[in-house]
Specification:
By secondary structure, the protein is α+β, with helices and mostly antiparallel strands. 27% of the residues lie in helices and 30% in strands. The chain has 2 domains: 3-11 and 117-279, Nucleoside Triphosphate Pyrophosphohydrolase; 17-113, Transcription Regulator spoIIAA (2-Layer Sandwich). It has 8 helices and 12 strands. The strands form 3 sheets. Strands 7, 8, 9, 10, 11 and 12 form a 6-stranded mixed beta sheet that branches. Strands 2-1-4-3 form a 4-stranded mixed beta sheet. It starts with a helix and ends in a 5-residue tail after the last helix.
Length: 284
């Protein structure tokens, strides 16, 4: 296996199985054809487009009306078991990441509608005489998603109502007991994008990445139950685990591969170097 395999796994999808989902005539997502056909029955909310796409009706003309209508639809999907895991956490819906949102939707339904979800991911590391070491957490065994898998030092979704850096500082405290003053030293290092087909829909997602060099005597500790434990790994072990196993949650691999590239741990003359760089930024 290789780092390219990890990137390929996060970009496997076939859009022929999906219908475009539009709001205010702009595509904001993708819906599986069977679900699109089911949703089209809600003629008070949706209309079918000439190309087979699904649109919110033009009568739903503002953020509030669209959000209310979509939440009613999502709750109906929940009652029928087609959406699970409600968190009462809402994500913005827009034609492009960073554009003004046209509405908001429950996090659990984002993939069902193929809406781009954003998150913050931070790699916490320590420099030692023998090289870089990375703080690697293990997700709690009782989590509803990816229980017991390895993760990035800190990671979390980006809901409405909070800025990217503010969210990172919050997640640092909640997941790893990193105090705000230390978390604010994190350095933004760019964004990663991928598009992956999953059982619950399509994930055309974006990860805002940060590095934080931690003091040698600082030990992250679980705080909110999301993580089970933290271990400090030599970077060589981290690289081998990403490359040769699927022990890390799928999208965490991408964040770590980016870290390896930026810190010169993948040689510039490595034959995969340029393909890795290009593969990490497949913006939908």
């Amino acid at each position: 296996m290789s780092f390219l395999d990890r990137i390929a796994e996060c970009n496997r999808h076939d859009l022929s199985g999906f219908a475009p989902f539009r709001v205010a005539r702009a595509r904001v997502g993708w819906v599986r054809h069977a679900l699109a056909q089911r949703l089209a029955a809600r003629r008070d909310v949706f209309a079918r487009d000439a190309d087979g796409g699904l649109s919110l009706r033009d009568e739903l003309a503002d953020h509030g009306a669209r959000s209310t209508a979509m939440d009613d639809v999502v709750r109906g999907l929940e009652r029928n078991g087609l959406v699970t895991g409600r968190r009462d956490e809402f994500y913005p819906v827009a034609p492009h990441v960073g554009s003004p949102p046209l509405l908001q939707v429950e996090r659990a339904a984002v993939a069902a509608f193929g809406i781009a979800a954003c998150g913050v991911h931070m790699t916490g590391f320590v420099r030692r005489p023998d090289g870089i070491h990375v703080w690697v957490p293990r997700r709690a065994r009782g989590k509803s998603t990816y229980p017991g898998m390895l993760d990035n030092t800190v990671a979390g979704g980006l809901p409405v109502g909070i800025g990217i850096f503010e969210n990172l500082v919050k997640e640092c405290a909640e997941e790893a007991s990193i105090p705000a003053a230390l978390a604010r030293r994190a350095i933004p290092v760019g964004a990663i994008a991928y598009c992956m087909e999953a059982p619950d829909g399509l994930k055309p997602d974006v990860q805002f990445c940060f590095d934080l060099e931690l003091p040698a005597d600082f030990v992250p500790r679980p705080a909110d139950g999301e993580m089970e434990s933290f271990e400090l790994w030599p970077v060589a072990r981290t690289m081998a685990t990403v490359r040769d196993t699927r022990e890390f949650k799928f999208n965490c691999n991408l964040v770590l591969i980016d870290f390896f590239l930026r810190h010169g741990l993948v040689a510039r003359d490595d034959p995969d170097h340029d393909a890795l760089c290009a593969g990490l930024r497949r913006f939908a």
